[in-house]
């Protein structure tokens, strides 16, 4: 199966990936895609954009520079995005809780994908408070909701932010 069309024309349109497979591959890549609804909820560092070349703090100006730079140089980034899976659907915007903390959410679903051929779990990118990045008690929607399993990322995070 092909994710993108070939430049040589060897693949026919029926060989192209389904929308579900395309969405799954995007989430599996670990690179978050934010829609208009979530555009003001994150700064680039929360979505790991500096680690995938999406923003460069050593180059000239970029959109939202003042807010991003303030977070960058004050060390105020307290959230990061990682991949997670669950047996339950994980719609974007769904809050994530720790099983033993009913007070407030510790994260939110950024992107998600339904299981594709050969997969049994739903896959998502979730933005979490850094202190829970290794937690094994994360739940979807409520502290009693379906369990999440964190999967890490397919790329290293830059350490100097």
Task: Write out key terms for the chains shown.
about 160 residues; alpha+beta; six-stranded antiparallel beta sheet; about 10% helix
Can I get a quick summary?
With 161 residues, the chain is α+β, with helices and mostly antiparallel strands. It is built from two helices and six strands; from the N terminus they run H-H-E-E-E-E-E-E.
Overall pLDDT confidence: 83
Low-confidence stretches: none
Largest sheet: 6 strands, antiparallel
User: Order of strands across the biggest sheet?
Assistant: 5-2-3-4-1-6
- Please bin the fraction of helical residues: 10-25%
- Distance N to C terminus: 38 Å
General shape: globular
Helix count, DSSP H or I runs of 4 or more residues: 2
Give the helix/strand class.
Answer: alpha+beta
Number of strands: 6
> Strand fraction band?
15-25%
Q: What is the gyration radius calculated from CA atoms? A: 17 Å
Order of helices and strands: HHEEEEEE
What does this 3D model show about the protein?
The protein is α+β, with helices and mostly antiparallel strands and 161 residues long. It is 12% helix and 21% strand. The protein has two helices and six strands; from the N terminus they run H-H-E-E-E-E-E-E. A hairpin with an 8-residue loop joins strand 2 and strand 3. The mean pLDDT is 83.
């Amino acid at each position: 199966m092909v994710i993108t069309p070939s430049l040589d024309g060897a693949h026919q349109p029926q060989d192209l990936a389904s929308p579900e497979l395309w969405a799954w591959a995007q989430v599996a890549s670990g690179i978050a895609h934010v829609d208009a609804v979530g555009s003001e909820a994150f700064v680039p560092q929360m979505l790991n954009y500096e680690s995938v070349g999406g923003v460069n703090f050593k180059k000239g100006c970029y959109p939202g520079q003042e807010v991003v730079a303030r977070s960058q140089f004050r060390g105020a980034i307290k959230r990061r995005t990682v991949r997670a899976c669950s047996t339950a659907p994980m719609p974007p915007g769904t809050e994530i809780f720790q099983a033993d903390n009913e007070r407030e959410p510790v994260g939110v679903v950024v992107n998600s994908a339904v299981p594709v051929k050969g997969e049994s779990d739903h896959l998502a990118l979730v933005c979490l408070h850094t202190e829970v990045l290794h937690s094994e008690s994360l739940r979807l929607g409520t502290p009693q909701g379906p369990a999440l399993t964190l999967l890490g990322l397919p790329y290293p995070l830059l350490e100097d932010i």
